[in-house]
Amino acid sequence: MLVIVTGVSGTGKSTLGALLAERLGLPFFDADQFHPAANVAKMSAGHPLTDEDRIPWLQAMADQLVESGKSGGAVLTCSALKNSYRKMLSVSPSIRWIHLTGDRDLIWERMSARQNHFMKAGMLDSQIALWEKPLTGYLLDITGTPEQLLDASLHYLKTQPMNMQMGVIGMGVMGKSLALNLAEKGVSVSLYNRYVAGKEEGVAQKVVDENPEFSNTAAFEDLQKFVDSLEKPRRILMMIPAGAAIDAQLDALIPILEKDDLVIDGGNSFYKDSERRVERLREVGMHFLPMGVSGGEEGARKGPSIMPGGNAEGYAMVEDFLGRISAKDKDGKPCVTYVGPGGSGHFIKMVHNSIEYGEMQVLAELTHLLRFGFGCTAEQVSAIFADWGKGELKSFLLEITADLLLFKEDGALLLDKILDQAGQKGTGAWSLTTALEYGIPYSPLAESVNARGVSGEKAMRVAFSKTFQHEFQKVEDSLESWLPKIKAAYSLARIINHEVGFRLMKTVSDTKDWKLNFNEISRIWTNGCIIRSGLMENISANYSDSVSFFETAGVKEQVISGRKALAELVGLGLTHGFALPVMSAGINYLLGRITAESSASVIQAQRDYFGAHTYQRKDDASGKFYHTNWI
Ligand SMILES: NC(=O)C1=CN([C@@H]2O[C@H](COP(=O)(O)OP(=O)(O)OC[C@H]3O[C@@H](n4cnc5c(N)ncnc54)[C@H](OP(=O)(O)O)[C@@H]3O)[C@@H](O)[C@H]2O)C=CC1
Ligand SMILES: O=C(CO)[C@H](O)[C@H](O)COP(=O)(O)O
């Protein structure tokens, strides 16, 4: 067992540490032994140490802990005032921390009574100022005698034998992968899955059994025991379905949790539900973090993009862990950031998914047009996509589409055996209703939701295809002549999808005063998430709140050059029998946004004609409203 006793000078660390070492039969080390001579001289001269001075000292102790861990353990006493110092000493997830705290005057009294110690009593205040509330371990008040403190410490070590650093609820696709990712990054994790007799039995235990390489995991299917296994304040990540399941899980958790505990919802919950839940937990003194996670199963296991929002204090409790498990951007920075208050983390994940829907639909539209209009084989389409993916059009979704077009089952393309009915879990539709609520044009991404809806009406589609004798027409022109236009059209359709999504996010952020940082949001979307792409890297590098996204460097040129190509491709597809809802809506959206003289005068005239709704005039800049008696 490795035990570290911390506290400011004068709290009695060395006394307690030595007593503990004796009782546990472990070697004892005091931090003073590890100070380089220069540090001792500095402190003796009454000068406080800088963070830089502390690095070699902390490193020497960390090395000692690693060594001691190999031979049964040790007790170390060290001031470890800041969480960053404690992090350097966290060489193993099984370290047991005892943090001594107490009244300043009592500590002062004890320090003043000490002889021959190089730390001057007057430095106490600087130590107290530096001390940060620990994120983990046992806070022990020093008021008692050394023997009483020893008894309390031994009781803690005995009754809290596991003290896992994090708990994960839900051992499905995402929960299991995130739990194993945490374990791999040195975070001890308790795994919980509900027990349903005859159906869901021993689910968490199976995960532990199948991954014996991780000695820092423990399985539970009793919620109370799971909660008890966690160090306080507890950190619990829920990875279960959005909606009623989250509220039911909170109903079960809240009565057995305590003040300052943290619950994270890492699923795809609707952001308005999350806002309500932030309040619910705040009222009982707990922290709630609505947190978007993207990357699917592989991302969750190896490095997802993580979008936590809500309670900032709660975020501080897991910032280090999330940084460890997340993907890293091109500069090595973790693809995680505190997004903002309320439900903003889930809100941006919702819009992320909406862009994801649009991107997927465009690729589906192109795949169909290339295969059944231009007569390409699946391999040829895959090769075209793979080629695009080598340049600035690179994206994760393009890459996996190129890949799945090659996947064979029993010698035949698996894709052709998959029923053409697309599922959806809510995020796309919620983005659309949010856009409607805020009056933001959303047609391209809305069409990706509608397309999934239409796909679901399979029986009717089959019947109507006969009634209306629908067939795809072969395109007569050569693919070679169209390929540059198809590429330009694809590029522009993607730009439009992103513009639509970012515009919604900006509007809602401004209205709710969330102050979302879009350079940072796009940065954490450059890796780990499903919509990671070259375009996202461009957005991250060039996003500016002050101009429209269409005017961004490198984007404006593509809007200009791709416009005709997208219109032509949509025209070609429609006249050859292909539904291209997102690309069609995309070119309509773009033309609408760049048309100075729109057809809306007709709408205003009609409204005034039938309903006396009034209209404003181009020849009266005052904004006055007019009504005409049209009849
Ligand atoms: N799959 C993905 O690519 C991504 C999913 N998400 C989101 O993450 C969340 C989890 O998704 P995912 O892991 O894919 O889902 P899964 O269906 O794979 O797993 C769901 C988990 O939740 C548990 N569960 C189901 N219903 C309840 C309930 N009423 N109470 C308690 N536990 C319950 C299941 O337990 P049991 O085994 O007992 O049924 C299972 O452990 C969802 O919100 C999803 O939208 C987010 C990003 C990506
Ligand atoms: O969040 C995700 C990816 O980012 C999930 O995979 C989500 O389930 C995708 O949405 P849908 O199921 O509605 O297609």
UniProtKB/TrEMBL annotation:
- The protein's name: 6-phosphogluconate dehydrogenase, decarboxylating
The entry sums up its family as follows: Belongs to the gluconokinase GntK/GntV family. Belongs to the 6-phosphogluconate dehydrogenase family.
Catalysed reaction equations from the record: 6-phospho-D-gluconate + NADP(+) = D-ribulose 5-phosphate + CO2 + NADPH; D-gluconate + ATP = 6-phospho-D-gluconate + ADP + H(+)
Q: Which PANTHER family match?
A: 6-PHOSPHOGLUCONATE DEHYDROGENASE
Name all 6-phosphogluconate dehydrogenase C-terminal domain ranges.
Answer: 345-631
Q: What gene is this protein a product of?
A: gndA
Q: Which CDD domains match?
A: GntK (cd02021)
Query: What metabolic or biological pathway is this protein involved in?
Result: Carbohydrate acid metabolism; Carbohydrate degradation; pentose phosphate pathway; D-ribulose 5-phosphate from D-glucose 6-phosphate (oxidative stage): step 3/3
Look at the named UniProt entry and state the broad enzyme category this protein falls under.
oxidoreductase
> EC annotation?
1.1.1.44
- Which segments of the protein form a coiled coil according to its record? none
Q: Upper taxonomic classification of the species?
A: Bacteria, Pseudomonadati, Bacteroidota, Cytophagia, Cytophagales
- Keyword set for this entry? ATP-binding, Gluconate utilization, Kinase, NADP, Nucleotide-binding, Oxidoreductase, Pentose shunt, Transferase
GO terms (molecular function) for this protein are: phosphogluconate dehydrogenase (decarboxylating) activity
The record's listing under SMART domains reads: 6PGD
State whether it acts alone or in a complex, and with which partners, per the record.
Answer: Homodimer.
Q: Name one Pfam family in it.
A: SKI
Name the InterPro entries on file.
6-PGluconate_DH-like_C_sf, 6PGD_dom2, 6PGDH_C, 6PGDH_Gnd/GntZ, 6PGDH_NADP-bd, 6PGdom_BS, NAD(P)-bd_dom_sf, P-loop_NTPase
Briefly, what is this protein's role? Catalyzes the oxidative decarboxylation of 6-phosphogluconate to ribulose 5-phosphate and CO(2), with concomitant reduction of NADP to NADPH.
